[in-house]
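BUG: 3D viewer hangs when loading the predicted structure for this chain

Environment: internal workstation, default settings.
Expected: structure renders.
Actual: progress bar stalls at 90%.

Input used:
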Amino acid sequence: MERPRPNEESARRIGPYRLITRLDPPTPPPGRIPCRRFVARSADGDRTVLLSTPLPGANPARFLTEAQAGMPVFGS
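Structure tokens produced before the viewer hung:
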């Protein structure tokens, strides 16, 4: 994998996590929550996590409800 340029580094991070790869296609299939899912790693490399971010135009209330429903599954 090519090393990101310094100005691209912020685009490859979400909060304290460095993005490793995107899991979903650019356009979500019909009926799916419009979001992007990423595999990411903490700066110290101690944690690898699944991050989910809503796409522009997604209903924030629905996204929040789905995210909260998934938290107990993953022990958050």
